[in-house]
Amino acid sequence: MTTNYKPNQPIWCAGCGHFGVQGALKYALKTLDIQPHETMILAGIGCSGSIQNNLGTYGYHAMHGRVLPTAIGTALANPALTVIASGGDGDGYAIGVGHFVHTLKRNPSLVYIVMNNGTYGLTKGQDSPTKDAPDWAPGEDALDAITLGLSIGSSTFLARGFAGAPEQLNELTIKALEHARSGRGFAFLEVLSPCVTYNDTYPLWEAMVHDLDKDADYDASDRTLAFTTCMKLKDDHRIPTGVIYQGDHPTLEKALLEEGARPIAQIDSDISEHRPKLDAILENCRV
Amino acid sequence: MTTNYKPNQPIWCAGCGHFGVQGALKYALKTLDIQPHETMILAGIGCSGSIQNNLGTYGYHAMHGRVLPTAIGTALANPALTVIASGGDGDGYAIGVGHFVHTLKRNPSLVYIVMNNGTYGLTKGQDSPTKDAPDWAPGEDALDAITLGLSIGSSTFLARGFAGAPEQLNELTIKALEHARSGRGFAFLEVLSPCVTYNDTYPLWEAMVHDLDKDADYDASDRTLAFTTCMKLKDDHRIPTGVIYQGDHPTLEKALLEEGARPIAQIDSDISEHRPKLDAILENCRV
Amino acid sequence: MNARTQDLSAGSGSGSATTARDDVTVMVAGQGGDGSLTVIAFLSRALSQRGLDLFRTSNIASRIKGGHAAAILRGSAVRRGCLGDKLDILVAFDDEAIEKAGPSVADDGIVIYDVSRGPLPGGILPPTARVIEVPFGRLAVRDLRRDLFKNCFGFGVLSRVMGLTDDEALDCLKHRFRRLSEEDLMPNIGALKNGFAFADDLDMTTDHGLIELPRLEKEDRIMITGNEATAFGFLAAGGRFFAGYPITPATDIMDWLGKRFPQFGGVAMQAEDELAAINMVIGASLAGAKAMTASSGPGIALMQEGIGHCGSAEIPLVIVDCQRAGPSTGMPTKPEQSDIGLMTQGAPGDFPRVVLCPGTPEECFEYGVLATNLAQVAQCPIYIALDGLCQFTYTVPAFDLDSVEIDNGKRLSDAEISKLGEYRRYAITEDGISPWAIPGQPEGMGLMTGNERNEWGQVSTDPANRIAMVDKRARKIDSIRHRLPGAYEWGDEQAEVGVVCVGMVGDVLAEARERLAEQGTILICHRPRTLWPLLDDTVDFVKNCDRVYVVELNKSGQLAQLLKSAGAPAQKMQSILKYDGVPMSVAELVAAILEKERAR
Amino acid sequence: MNARTQDLSAGSGSGSATTARDDVTVMVAGQGGDGSLTVIAFLSRALSQRGLDLFRTSNIASRIKGGHAAAILRGSAVRRGCLGDKLDILVAFDDEAIEKAGPSVADDGIVIYDVSRGPLPGGILPPTARVIEVPFGRLAVRDLRRDLFKNCFGFGVLSRVMGLTDDEALDCLKHRFRRLSEEDLMPNIGALKNGFAFADDLDMTTDHGLIELPRLEKEDRIMITGNEATAFGFLAAGGRFFAGYPITPATDIMDWLGKRFPQFGGVAMQAEDELAAINMVIGASLAGAKAMTASSGPGIALMQEGIGHCGSAEIPLVIVDCQRAGPSTGMPTKPEQSDIGLMTQGAPGDFPRVVLCPGTPEECFEYGVLATNLAQVAQCPIYIALDGLCQFTYTVPAFDLDSVEIDNGKRLSDAEISKLGEYRRYAITEDGISPWAIPGQPEGMGLMTGNERNEWGQVSTDPANRIAMVDKRARKIDSIRHRLPGAYEWGDEQAEVGVVCVGMVGDVLAEARERLAEQGTILICHRPRTLWPLLDDTVDFVKNCDRVYVVELNKSGQLAQLLKSAGAPAQKMQSILKYDGVPMSVAELVAAILEKERAR
Ligand SMILES: Cc1ncc(C[n+]2csc(CCOP(=O)(O)OP(=O)(O)O)c2C)c(N)n1
Ligand SMILES: Cc1ncc(C[n+]2csc(CCOP(=O)(O)OP(=O)(O)O)c2C)c(N)n1
Ligand code: SF4
Ligand code: SF4
Ligand SMILES: [Mg+2]
Ligand SMILES: [Mg+2]
Q: What is the pTM of this model?
């Protein structure tokens, strides 16, 4: 029996929302019985970007803002893995937002959890793109990643949870994992995860969240309804939570990988099977 | 009388949609009587990224994908200028899409014209993000920059034209310029501008465009309606054109610049007026 | 009172007698909220008022909040830009502080320990150190209802230990809290006085402290970090646009400018990433504003395309690199000098650039001004290379604002343009610099591009034009070479042994040289202040010495490589390297040089 | 027929007599659609069948479509990796071709000019050149209804000029059009035959061409570009993941792999930008796939953060830099060697990296394999530095696939992991290389990060750990040093004069050396094939020569700087630089060396 690293103790401030995200992830991995060695957690850089150290799985600390392309590379190299990308709102919506758009567009079957706290926790509290009327340009509206997700035609799973609502968050994390693991595509879960030190939004968000899962009239498979609902709630100063949209669209790995093929991550040292193909390439170069 | 560079002859293939964009821009600048020396055209890199050489204005060739932050810098440094950013769909929606999101969010008063041809013309025809079912991942949906724009709460002007409909394009270009020049914010104009060499979509787009400006029931000030309409048209394999959304939101320059102040681009060599303020800063450092 | 002084009148010889000191290093350490930084701030005021020169640094652990925080202050009669080898005084708010800092306490050091959270850990402090145990926390809560006041309480004890008068101590509080209301100030003063009383009980009266500090003539001084001084220089030179993205340890610059720009009409933007930041700066600069960005390793890497582009498109640009321990995210809070290769060689292709490398806050200010001017003059990227000095706080003579001269280079006025007859943005000139109009100026229309282009700015691949343009751009560096700061050189001109270093190592070397001289090892020291182009004085220095030690804070000897690539003879040079994230100490440097000398 | 041959039986001496040639440079030039590249492809087949070695390059102007396109082919009995000094034959489809290429025609050159679009421009060609005027276009339209067929027509004339048999010429068409139907092939053959007939009229029969080429033994050869050969090496070594973003001249690699990967199960991704590309590659690589990216200047600049990160996080990575003329966008279609500083010094901090620098397609293939292996073995970034050679086409001996050995380094099997007892991703080992498990392997869980970390991958700023980790990573380079390709050296070992160059300059130098030897200037030549770490053989080479010329395609002498920084004595070296975007010619290099020698 080979032993591995001892999962770290979280380094977060007491009360940080990120604890909630970690709790939900732990719960979901356990509930779905996903083995640590089959799980790859990738995280960006930020306070949020240390979650990958705490769960005993494979963990990778990506460059700031680049967790999604990295996760795509990993998922394509080994589609048997449960790939979970994670990070902060600075990481995902500021420096990383271009990759976010393109990942929604590509629809690879992996999970992406953004811990949204409206601030750059690790660098000591600068305003992030989800901060309304930020210091540096008081006119700016907060970025709403869910409506952004709705605007991308290939998006298939858009959900929002709240660190202050752990049961719902557990459920949403499970649903996100199921979506990705069943090969339906990119499961995006934003968690309202307050930074108690630099932007304590617990009471504010507590009052604003509106759980769409509890709304019987709501149909999460209707993209237009989803958009309209988000806009209406925004006007009412409410924040929608729950599974806001779920649908189907071809996935990246279906387009690029042959079903059932050996993952390219598992190097075959025996190249003899490829030799005839290499010979043919060489032949084609002869003059 | 000092003479300046002789505007270049376009280097585009005969029939390229970009001629249409240039024609409309020339027309609009003339119609609105905007002087060449007050006009700064910035362009990305691509076939599209040579338009700035052809109109006799100030012109700048930005790095690939970076035309928007550059244009923001220019606009803040000198709000008296008419700042026109432009570029291709590769430039704006692939490498540059993160800046696009944040520029929509910031709402600076400048114009952005994207020449969308579904391909990377200059690098010889690779599929771009607006190509449906691209070679490299046949499952992917084309990016729709207008719906993306609708999802950003601070967006104020979203329009689409077609190089094959020059009159409409003239009008839209004028409207975009007016929006930005009147200080209402970021005027985004996407032009369907076919690449006759690598992706000749003239007939396809000719058949698909649907001019919302001609639709009396359509209300471009209603963001939700705009989104719903775009989705419906998409389902019908139509592409909406016209002013798809126009609204109001605080602008970046209002947040950051003092109204009527001397532009920081105009360096004041006489620093004596600042001396007392500098002295005060020094004083504050004394121990 | 359950305090206990251990060895207070025993210890290393002199008993409780007062020791005269003109150089003292004090650390205050505890959890994040304990107020260590505040105590050090009080002390800074006191020592500065005594006319001592100060050097201050803080050590904030990676834990996000709480976690261990320490601040260290050195006060000395002679100006020192680094810490002493050992801690003369340690104020420890908890056992962790003892565990971490205990080994650094001097044999004759004094430790003031807050026993409120637990007993003093044994076996860590040097046995000869004096320990004063005080339950600051408990007493602050008991007497003043809030743990918070323990910093004032602690400072009361500390000021007595250091032989400060009560008035001096009080002045520190009042200065620090000058914006507090009388009401809010009172409990703090109460805590201070409780500290005095506690010290009285230990028989540490004002004229009977453990340490006696001198009173020196005080010149007009300020206290400032390298980051602040650099930003100040930029502002003074007319800098009006900054765009950046948060990153340790560069964020201070954005903050500093963000606070001060509004009254100057300037704009500090927090961009969505470093790519946006550099391009916003480019956009502002090509429109005519004096513009700067600042970042650290990962961010500077992302800016490389933009920096090379400015070199090509001839756009003025100031970039501050607050170097930290790499590679990659590395150790973000630890200093290093390991972006020398990146700054001097990064970005594709050949283009003119300058890398200035200050070693003191005065130089930071001066080069902040110079870089802003040079960028305008040479229309190319100018780096300012900072290291740990960006976060260290120093007392230095107040900057001379009268000495600031502004140079706008070949910026054309409207009148000048209309007299030109013909305006070409990239006109080929003897000095390589093209007169320049900004957008908005009538008759100044031109094209700017990072592609190779003709004089009008029109893209061209013509070979002859290419050669002319590359040569033109290269000539710019020759045209400004005489304005680039030469090395700072000191020590004995007759010395066989030369030492070269840059940035924050300079002050360490200064002190090491003195100590080595006392021991009979004579050095001549050389600190280049322009890294690119490396100036002849540095190459000549190496040539003229018998042997040269190149001291730097990185693994691969990047500075030594730079010297060699400029032609300094390799066989004369040996590297002394440190790359553990901890600034080099004087003792370490002395030992390293002696070891090399002995090994000959 | 309104054709006219001018000077056909006059000109430089030998009249219409057949000249024997074992080295010939032919250019075909015209507008984009004229088929110049096709004619050159026909000719490539013919000359290759004759056993000549080939070198081919094309010149596509910046105009987007149409615009001027030229292809040049050199065939020679001795292998040459560059063009001849002058054009022996020019086939010109329009006057622009004459204007552009005319000055390069040899004094005894032959020009075949299509008069269909206008008369031959005067005063450009050397007066002694022979001109054959043929209205290809007009005749093709008249006889075959399509202008398109003029390339076959032209080739008919050209093959007679070059003394090829009709069967040889026919074989070229058939080989090139082997995938065409008989029906589609016919008109092409018709056009060819019309060309023959036209030549007959000019009395150029098969055994009476103007040039006579040898028939040589033909070894097993392929025709390939540097880009293709590099991609092929990567594929053969088990490379299975590529992500990139279009950029000239690197896009070929993505295309080549994109076409061939599917049958190997590999994935070639077109990313949204270079940041995504490098991070996709990183993601695939850390998951276990052998992965590569390729780009050019601006893209390589954007990848710097990722490259440094791999150096820190110990992730295998192969990066191909297809260097082009910088700085910035520069001249995208023109070759240069000006990213040497960037590759060897770019990215913040110190980390292990390797820069391989091939000079031939065989080396491209070999280093494609080697880089893939070394990346696995050393778990760090490995660059392959290409220059113009990436787009040149060469005949070379067919690659020896049997020689390809795959090295997976310290990748652990499941069984090995379970025997470990304890798995630490960054275990400190003597050779600096940690055995490695990939995600998915039971009991192999570990943490990977670009922050400094302990052996388990847990973030740490402990100074002792830091030193151990930096040293560990640095040791990797020592562990693989013996596997890095040494320089390729040739010439006279007794020579006083040494010449150093890299990449595409190698073949130019080879030929220049021969010519100089004939004139009595004896050289020893040295082409380093590992730029980082620069190996001792190169430093020793400089030391052992009396004087050394460092020849490179950039302005600032980046290679010379690299040599100096590695310890090569500066005073022995002089630079010969070219940076106009045009490859150096043999004549230029000969002249430059002679000039330096004379100036002594
Ligand atoms: C390229 C780069 N730029 C900047 C940084 C500095 N940095 C570290 S974390 C961070 C942002 C953290 O904010 P967020 O992603 O919201 O995470 P949080 O700490 O709030 O959980 C930044 C800007 C970096 N590491 N790399
Ligand atoms: C950083 C960087 N990457 C890649 C390139 C190469 N490049 C030049 S133009 C271009 C894309 C052009 O496509 P688009 O923006 O759609 O413009 P179009 O030519 O279609 O008008 C690319 C990828 C570059 N110049 N810089
Ligand atoms: S600083 Fe904020 S985000 Fe970071 S750990 Fe503390 S509470 Fe959480
Ligand atoms: S290649 Fe396409 S985009 Fe470029 S100029 Fe030609 S038609 Fe236009
Ligand atoms: Mg955050
Ligand atoms: Mg395009």
A: 0.97
